[in-house]
Request: fold
Amino acid sequence: MAKFRKERKGGQQKLNTSSLPDIVFMLLFFFMVATSMKEVTMQVKIKSPEATEVTKLEQKSLVSYVYVGVPLSSKKYGSEPRIQLNDSFATVDDIENYILQEREGMKEADRPKMTVSIKADADVQMGTITDIKQALRKAQALKISYSARKAQ
Amino acid sequence: MAKKETPELNASSLADIAFLLLIFFLVATTMSTDTGLARMLPPIMPNTEDDAPPIKERNVFTVLLNFKNQLLVEGEWLDVKDLRSKAKEFIANPGNLETLPEKTDTEVEFFGTYPVSKGVISLQNDRGSTYQAYLEVQNELQAAYNELREELAKSKFRKSYDDCSEDEQKAIKVIYPQRISEAEPKNYKK
Reply:
């Protein structure tokens, strides 16, 4: 078996790689901070409508989501648009409780800044959305955002 | 004193471990931030009928959306494409027309006394219209406001609205406040 020779005879200088972990760690920390791991498993199919005047939703911790769309497993749940809150299906009556719960989980100072993002499929009928809006008004969650993709 | 040299720790595998973690987070990251059209819902009032001051007809820009996704704007059929220019004309009322909203002189920073329009856009939709059509209308109305603000910023401050300072943006917002009222849903009897 070949042995590693310790001394080099006029070979190339060894590159000092001791700062490599530092660089990698820096990148690592960046991604750890930028990552948002909490994503719900989608139960409904959503193809967001497109719009040109969209604004970004700052601070994810202040945003609660209401999903509306046709269930992915339409054999089981039918093809009528359904509302999804967190990981499960819900009805319009559940929204008020959901908002109260979300609000409880926030810091006192952040509560007025709470935003509800309505993520609905482009083909959903407005009746459902109107009902959701009424429920949100009842729950005093007045800051909303109609989720849309930026049109290219 | 004799100094004992401390043996160096072999740290070459540290980079491997860090890389492993880095790749994991790279894959698991979703950078996409949610985008959307921001709106404020009106709070629920117990009895609005009595105390709400009546709004003059000329100050209201009614937009109706029916279940076939057709638009009725101020009593006329309109295509979504033409909504933006029509809304801009209504909000700005450049010719001070009788039929378009009246203006009140308001003290605004940077601008001095400026006639501010009292116009309100009222949007009503049928329960059968699609979300896509509704959002298109909302988008056009938003675009009308954004374009007016942009034009004002260009003519007054010689720069884009986005580049204006916070105070300047605030002043422009006083002149063109975004007033889109999403009307109370009506109970249609079937």
